[in-house]
Amino acid sequence: MDYSVSAQYQPALSCFSVQNQHLILRYLAGLAARQYADTTLSAVVTTLNALIRHLPGRRHVVLTDDLTQTTAQDISVFITAAQSSGLMPSTINTKLSILTSFFEYLREEGQMTQQPVLRRRHRLLTPTVLPKPMPDTDLTAFFKAIDAVRDRLICHGGAPSPQTTIRGEKENRSSSTCQSKITKLLVGIELMHMIKKRQMVSEAGDEGLTAAEQFYSLAA
Description:
Largest sheet: none
CATH class of the largest domain: Mainly Alpha
CATH architecture of the largest domain: Orthogonal Bundle
CATH topology of the largest domain: DNA polymerase, domain 1
Shape: elongated
Mean pLDDT: 79
């Protein structure tokens, strides 16, 4: 076991039995060996403590002694308590993901036979948040930072340029024809890339043909 992990996190696991502490610290050591951040390891400890804290009476005693006895009903009680304390659905789902990974580890180690966190039963619906529009000043700065011609064409081919947005409807209407041409140019560029990578060949084959000749053969 990683003694640095043990020294750092064992004090926060004092409410658990020695058996539980050993299981948790071994799991944390495995995460640390895979370069997981300290914040992730701390979140595991915090979530497991919260699970125990929210369980009533007899179940609190049982799981404090042996986490491998956790059931789906224990997880349901934990969720109800988390909601009552005002936690957001997304935060609760994050804690459920942490518990899922821990109990899956116990299953792989042969310590448990069933996963107590059931996705369809326990996962909470979260509201869909639409992305906020980018301010014109940020959009202009974004396009100015793009140096490659191909990248500029890709960005401008799918949406009006920031200058078009700023100048108004007149430029927007006049740019539609230009964008149509840009789209066709993009298709041609991608076709040339595919030819050079030998991902596309004309029916006549590419024997002795330059990339340009193959392009015109395919575009004919």
